[in-house]
Amino acid sequence: MAQTQAQSPVGAHQETNGKMSNNKVKITLTDLNDDLSPVTFEIDKPTDLIQAKISSTNDFYERPLLDIVGSITPADSVFLDVGANIGNHTLFMAAKTRAKVLSFEPNKDNFGRLIKNIELSKMTGSVEAFNVAVGKQAGVVRSIFSSQKNTGGAKVQSTNKDDELGVPLIKIDDFLKKIKLKFTGKLIIKIDVEGMEVEVIEGMTSTIEEYQPIIVCEASSDKNIVLLRNIPMKRGYIVAASFFKSPTFLMVHKDNASSVFPHILEHSWSSARSYVSYCELSKMKVRAQKAIADAAEILK
């Protein structure tokens, strides 16, 4: 077993299958502290952003964020992975927290990779995957790649039901009502949908009111950064933390902030990676504390 860089708690081994012209490498990630079930990814597109990151680091993509989200996810929780791609966040949460995971991925190529990785990781009992897109209204869309070097950058466009590449467009509110979701832990919703994040949130307003879920959402533009701060805030949400350049916001309802915030601080420090300095984390702590105070004042 090859061990990764000193700061990473993950070990890995690789297997290569197929001919040299069409190699597929299987990478199995295992936690050295024995609190993460083994997760296996099949790397079939080594130039892809997420696959390249997993392959080059022998670790999960966006691991600092995953560590924090995992730490605030108790037993019998439900994790919705909206824009699951090949299953990076899906499989981490299933392996780390034992939460029930529902994954949504509209791109057929990525969905095939997602299913393969779920099977390789022996997670079929705890993960359900759906080849659908998520937005604010029902319909039909097709998913297309904007760049062959980033399959996570696939975007959707409207189409009709006769399109063989078309997939259903659903609302989270409708979906959860249909399956009659039951759980005793928390509902966590991660959203990474390349520009449709506002539409996804607009399609889950009833879910927000009923469950007060933890929301982890990437903002793809300056406009959406503003909207993602304002729309949830009207329903009592605050931005508890922000990650990466995109950025990705971790949003919680103000009534739940006191139970979540200590975990964010603790695991931010312990999960720091080479590209997140202690200085930056310290600034994040101050910003997050100020955000809570400001939001509490506004929402009185």
Automatic annotation (TrEMBL):
Gene3D superfamilies assigned: Vaccinia Virus protein VP39
Q: Which residues form the Methyltransferase FkbM domain?
A: 81-223
| Region ranges (Disordered) | 1-22
Q: Which keywords belong to this entry?
A: Methyltransferase, Transferase
Q: Name one GO molecular function term.
A: methyltransferase activity
For this protein, the record's InterPro entries field holds: FkbM_mtfrase, SAM-dependent_MTase, SAM-dependent_MTases_sf
Q: Where does the source fall among the domains of life?
A: Bacteria
Q: Does the keyword Methyltransferase feature in the UniProt annotation?
A: yes
A GO term (biological process) for this protein?
Answer: methylation
Q: Name one Pfam family in it.
A: Methyltransf_21
Q: Respond yes or no to whether keyword Amino-acid biosynthesis is given for this record.
A: no
| Stretches of the chain forming a coiled coil according to its record | none
> What's the protein here called?
FkbM family methyltransferase
Give the species this sequence originates from: Agrobacterium larrymoorei
Lineage, top ranks: Bacteria, Pseudomonadati, Pseudomonadota, Alphaproteobacteria, Hyphomicrobiales
